[in-house]
Amino acid sequence: xxxxxxxxxxxxxxxxxxxxxxxxxxxxxxxxxxxxxxxxxxxxxxxxxxxxxxxxxxxxxxxxxxxxxxxxxxxxxxxxxxxxxxxxxxxxxxxxxxxxxxxxxxxxxxxxxxxxxxxxxxxxxxxxxxxxxxxxxxxxxxxxxxxxxxxxxxxxxxxxxxxxxxxxxxxxxxxxxxxxxxxxxxxxxxxxxxxxxxxxxxxxxxxxxxxxxxxxxxxxxxxxxxxxxxxxxxxxxxxxxxxxxxxxxxxxxxxxxxxxxxxxxxxxxxxxxxxxxxxxxxxxxxxxxxxxxxxxxxxxxxxxxxxxxxxxx
Length: 313
Ligand SMILES: [Ca+2]
What we know:
single chain, two-stranded antiparallel ribbon
């Protein structure tokens, strides 16, 4: 199997950081063409900086990191410092990045890359609001058919929402962008809260990160420690869900996950349910499937993979 060419579109975020580290630790599975940053968990100024901090933590300073959209398509930006801390990457003390942003706009990088690479060979991995991806599709409709697959973290159905009662954060921040992506016709895999809430960082799993005994293992343990404080209080669960790494883990071992090919649509009108992902899990309509909506994960297998790969960095 050859490594899949991917673009990681992200708003780091501790769980984004772990997803990026997993990708950078797995060159046989993923060739990271670039990391494109978007406003989400924290403003763009911080997400683009955090992405570079994470690359430096991994010792991969040659990765291209681009800044992208600083606000959603048609709504004011909503951020999540209450979860991720003021910097977005609270927890470990990590140095400011020395590596610089790659010149150019993230949206243009996505467009140019899809035009340059052979059709059907580039996979997009959005880990935040879908503003950059939707903007690229709108600016250059010719690239849509050239995308191999989109594997995204976002949405929720049985688990409801985590920013409003009915909406998951990434989709809520830019519902119009999510709508554009889900209607694009590109093959899509969705990692909703329904699956990420099963990928919980329990104490033994957190200890396993720390026991790797490296700078990366220590930093990951401290990041998950940080946002566990919030999630335990909120959900009373055993630990915090590690949302975004589900995306990059899927590229390594899709058999860890199970889901259904179904129709998924986004609410873009109602303020009450704005950003809700209406998933036809029970196939009660004849709306054509547009996504593989993941519902379950082999959590022990997922954390074993994560720990093994992070130990490489
Ligand atoms: Ca994220």
